[in-house]
Write a structure and sequence with these properties.
One of its GO terms (cellular component) is cytoplasm. Residues 118-195 form the Beta-ketoacyl-[acyl-carrier-protein] synthase III N-terminal domain. It comes from Saccharomonospora cyanea NA-134. The protein is α/β, with parallel strands linked by helices and 326 residues long. It has two domains: 14-181, 3-Layer(aba) Sandwich (Peroxisomal Thiolase, Chain A, domain 1), CATH 3.40.47; 190-324, 3-Layer(aba) Sandwich (Peroxisomal Thiolase, Chain A, domain 1), CATH 3.40.47.10. It has nine helices and 14 strands. The protein has helices spanning 31-34, 42-48, 63-78, 102-110, 126-140, 213-234, 252-264, 277-280, 287-298; strands at 14-23, 27-30, 53-56, 87-91, 116-120, 146-153, 171-181, 190-193, 201-204, 208-211, 244-247, 272-273, 306-313, 317-324. The chain is globular. The structure holds oxa(dethia)-CoA. Residues 40, 44, 48-49, 124, 163-164, 167-168, 211, 213-214, 216-217, 220, 250-251, 254, 282, 313 line the site of oxa(dethia)-CoA.
């Protein structure tokens, strides 16, 4: 008896980002405001982290709400109707409870019916992981258009008196719609993890994020530039081809250290480097798509620019890829 042969889906030969969108809570929190609750000050935060202000969500403003707003904006930006989208991925690490996931609710509220929907937790690397998975789903033929929304409400999991986290983390969401393309617009993902360093960032007593700031800082400033370089190599490009660098907005000094290393290896002096952390804080899996959206609105990133992203954080997990700005 001959066994039946399975039929495989036929995917797109290449993918690109069709549209982006983001949202932030209305409430602006200055460094001076934080210094009223803990032993810190505006100058220290600006000098050591680069943050001028950040946004905190209201009590009734949920991660899912921010994801819906950012995702809907990405669809509008792409000019794509919800009915054309079949898959929703919500990278996040701050949903208050693991059940139900965010993605199914977000899909339903945006009007994407019967969507394949799942959350993805790679902490601050989540958006790059999600973008890599979305691109491969479309190339494999498993999905036609995938909405990837990095969304976080970090204020739910930050001890407001812990000055190593409370001055850094903030809330927001950023989204990208991924679909088929004639020309490659999303390069292969370079990803990995260092689970032996898991104790450097974790949820203490299942309640608040704890991080060993200095070791994480050292790890990020030494180990992440090589990942970014690997993403460029996988895309078949040279560092000098990169117009814009958007690392996870963890700390402006980390961002600048990564840029410096890449320039030493051939990146251009006129490389545009994201500094969205100044007015957004560290929003974990939302930081990269939010920075891309803000930079595009400001005109610092233009359609067709070659953008290098790299995310890194708890896990420790990291991922990066080259993409073309829509
Ligand atoms: O997104 C997920 C991945 N996370 C990261 O990438 C975070 C990486 N780490 C960092 O960004 C930094 O380590 C922190 C921002 C968390 C801390 O900055 P730091 O420059 O590493 O500070 P430190 O802990 O080495 O402390 C330096 C000094 C100390 O004073 P002395 O002992 O030198 O007198 C601290 O007591 O700064 C003091 N300090 C502060 N002062 C005012 C530490 N935190 C604060 C603060 N405000 N918030």
């Amino acid at each position: 008896m001959t066994r039946p042969t399975l039929t495989l889906a036929q995917g797109a030969k290449a993918t690109r980002i069709l549209g982006v969108g983001s949202t932030q809570p209305d409430r602006i929190v200055t460094n001076d405001e934080l210094s009223q609750h803990m032993d810190t000050n505006d100058q220290w935060i600006r000098d050591r982290v680069g943050i001028v202000e950040r946004r905190f969500a209201a009590d009734d403003e949920r991660l899912v709400d921010m994801a819906v707003t950012a995702g809907a904006k990405a669809l509008a930006d792409a000019g794509v109707a919800p009915s054309e989208v079949d898959t929703v991925i919500v990278p996040n690490c701050t949903l208050p409870a693991p059940i139900p996931n965010a993605a199914a609710q977000v899909a339903d509220r945006i009007g994407i019916r019967s969507a394949g929907a799942f959350d993805l937790n790679a902490a601050c690397a989540g958006f790059c992981y999600g973008l890599g998975v979305a691109s491969d789903l479309v190339r494999a033929g498993s999905a036609k258009k995938v909405l990837v929304i990095g969304a976080e409400k970090l204020t739910d999991v930050v001890d407001p008196t812990d000055r190593s986290t409370a001055i850094i983390f903030a809330d927001g969401a950023g989204a990208a719609l991924v679909g088929p393309s004639d020309e490659p617009g999303i390069g292969p993902v370079a990803w990995g993890s260092a689970g032996d360093l898991v104790d450097l960032i974790y949820m203490r007593d299942n309640r608040y994020i704890f991080q060993e700031g200095q070791p994480v800082f050292r790890w990020a400033t030494t180990q992440i530039a090589p990942i970014a370089m690997r993403a460029v190599e996988l895309a078949g490009l040279e560092l000098s081809d990169i117009d814009v660098l958007i690392p996870h907005q963890a700390n402006l000094r980390i961002v600048e250290a990564i840029a410096k290393r890449l320039r030493a290896k051939g990146a251009r002096e006129d490389l545009v480097v994201a500094d969205d952390i100044r007015y957004s804080g560290n929003t974990s899996s939302a930081s990269i798509p939010m920075a891309l959206d803000h930079m595009r609105a400001a005109g610092t990133v233009k359609r067709g620019d070659v953008v290098l992203t790299v995310g890194f954080g708890a896990g420790l997990s990291y991922a990066g890829q080259v993409l073309v700005c829509p």
